[in-house]
Write a structure and sequence with these properties.
By secondary structure, this protein is α/β, with parallel strands linked by helices. It has 14 helices and 13 strands. β6, α8 and β7 form a beta-alpha-beta unit. It starts with a helix and ends with a helix.
Length: 403
């Protein structure tokens, strides 16, 4: 199913927050594009028409994945960061009397610094702070918003510590004062069901390569919201989504891969309870629900292993609150060097990560040095309990060696 896993031998992939492996069907879709119709879209000949259709098919699939109102709201590009910047530049031109933006100290810096860069355009900022229990609380957001709030920018799930935010409540609070909500859904994507309608957000970004596709990203926004957003476009490009957002040529073969990645997630749901009556979205819901349930099992197992090794777990560390996290664990072992531990793990064929996790404000909040940071082990549904047990054995051996 996953060629990289089959070829890896004894190597264990536990750095999935930095990018997940791809199923065979995704690889096949990319190869098929490159071999069969690796040409520019917009032409009148067959291969070019096929590219147009493959992009349209991918928009439909991604729209189903996130429960968009229309495929026209799906915009393809390089990555989430570039889309955050695109939206921020547009919003910077529309601040007027609504000049306040709420940012958090738990997010990836791409969803913080990008907004802070609007200070020169007159933006002012309110900080929604993570509590000591390792999560953002909506009660702390309420006093930060007012009729001057333009936007609340926050993550759905912290890429560093795995905490899940109640984003539907964020939207309720923001919309009550006429503000918009921008969600970074990059890290939540592979772990749970995305539903922009239920969340009632206004913008959302994902990176497909975290969602079992090749490297690419996509932006969703309400159609009318994207239509109002100032963007750069060449004069011959239609001034409406998605075209006004997609400046230049993107990587068509990777968009085909994203289409296949959605179909892979559908297949998981369809295999659980085969039925000819269920819609594609129904199968996605079933598949992502099964993934979520299984990953809660992985999260409990990993939390137990880390606690048994005396680790300091950053974020949600109470098993009674396991539903507030995904199986991404950021931790340290006493005063042992995160770098040394990760290097030793690499020698034992386990891939994890150390450092600041692109979250300097969170590191400061956790009283961690940017130079050393912490260790992160991040799991997805192709990981196993057996792998976690091997991870625990390796970690115990490394602690004994370095202590």
């Amino acid at each position: 199913m996953f060629p990289a896993l089959q070829r890896a031998g004894d190597f264990i992939f536990m750095d999935n927050a930095a990018g997940a492996q791809i199923p065979q069907s995704v690889l096949d879709a990319v190869t098929n594009h490159l071999v069969s119709h690796n040409v520019q879209r917009g032409g009148r000949y067959g291969r070019s028409v096929t590219v147009d259709q493959s992009v349209a098919d991918a928009r439909t699939s991604v729209a189903l994945l996130i429960n968009a109102y229309s495929p026209a709201e799906i915009c393809f590009g390089m990555n989430a960061t570039s889309f955050i910047r695109l939206v921020s530049l547009g919003i910077g031109q529309m601040l007027s009397e609504r000049d306040e933006i709420v940012v958090t100290d738990m997010d990836h810096d791409a969803n913080i610094a990008t907004w802070l860069a609007l200070e020169s355009a007159g933006a002012k900022f309110k900080w929604w702070r993570m509590r000591e229990d390792g999560n953002l609380h909506v009660d702390d957001l309420k006093p930060l918003v007012s009729d001057r709030t333009r936007l609340v920018a926050c993550t759905v799930t912290a890429h560093s510590i795995g905490s899940i935010v109640d984003v539907a409540s964020v939207a309720d609070i923001a919309h009550s004062v006429g503000a918009e909500v921008f969600l970074d859904c990059v890290h939540y994507g592979p772990h749970g069901l995305i539903d922009v309608q239920a969340w009632d957000c206004d913008y959302l970004v994902c990176s497909g390569y975290k969602n079992f596709s090749p490297h690419m990203g996509f932006l969703w926004g309400r159609f009318d919201t994207l239509k109002r957003l100032p963007t750069f476009r060449e004069d011959f490009i239609p001034d409406e989504p998605p075209y006004k957002v997609e400046a230049g040529t993107f990587i068509y073969e990777n968009v085909s891969g994203m289409d296949a990645a959605v179909q892979y997630l559908e297949l998981i749901g369809r295999n659980l309870a085969p039925s000819n009556n269920r819609s594609r979205r129904d199968n996605i819901v079933a598949g992502m629900g099964a993934i979520r349930d299984y990953e809660l099992l992985l999260a409990r197992e990993m939390m137990g292993v880390l606690k048994g090794c005396g680790a300091t777990i950053y974020g949600v560390a109470d098993e009674a609150r396991i539903n507030e996290r995904v199986p991404t664990f950021c931790y340290n072992i006493g005063k042992l060097s995160p770098q040394r531990i990760v290097e030793e793990m690499a020698e034992m064929q386990i891939g994890i990560r150390d450092g600041h996790m692109y979250a300097p404000r969170l590191m400061k909040r956790l009283n961690l040095s940017m130079d050393s940071g912490a260790i992160r082990a991040s799991l997805v549904h192709y990981n196993t309990v057996e792998e976690i047990q091997k991870f625990g054995e390796a970690l115990r051996a490394i602690i004994a060696k370095l202590s």
